[in-house]
Amino acid sequence: ALPISDLAIVQFEEGKGFDVALSDCSAGIAVRKTDTELLEQINAVIATLDRDKEEAMMQVALDAQPLTLDE
What we know:
The protein is an all-alpha fold. The protein is built from 2 helices and no strands.
């Protein structure tokens, strides 16, 4: 892992950043290879989500991240 001092926040002027479609964003959940029961439980929950629900959850997460909060 990188120490915080090795990270930097880059801010672009309005309209000069990146345009990324929400559908291009993805998330992952890491589990140990030996946690097969947990993985099955996670996959069972994910299987119940439709695309609209996934996108709504991703939008909530993106809106809550520090880089998108109004200062």
